[in-house]
Amino acid sequence: MNAGVRKWIRVLGIMSGTSMDGVDYALCAIREGEVRLLDLWHAEFPAGLRRRLHAAARSELRTYPLAQLHHDLGRFYARHARGGGRKTRPHWIGVHGQTVYHQPDGRHPATWQMGEPAYLAEALRAPVVSNFRVADLAAGGQGAPLATLFHRVVFAAPGQHRAVNNLGGISNVTSMDWRKGREPRVLAFDTGPANVLIDMAARHYSRGRMDMDRDGAWASRGRAAEWLLERWLRHPYFRRPPPKSTGRELFGEPFWTRAHAEAQAARLGAADLLATLTALTARSIALNYRWHLRQIPDEVILTGGGAENPVLREEIRRALAIFRPDVRVRTGTQMGWPSSSIEPAAFALLAWRRMMGLPGNLPATTGARRAVLLGQVSECSGRA
Ligand SMILES: Nc1ncnc2c1ncn2[C@@H]1O[C@H](COP(=O)(O)OP(=O)(O)O)[C@@H](O)[C@H]1O
Ligand SMILES: [Mg+2]
Question: pLDDT digit string (tens) for 68-79?
Answer without folding.
Answer: 999 999 999 999
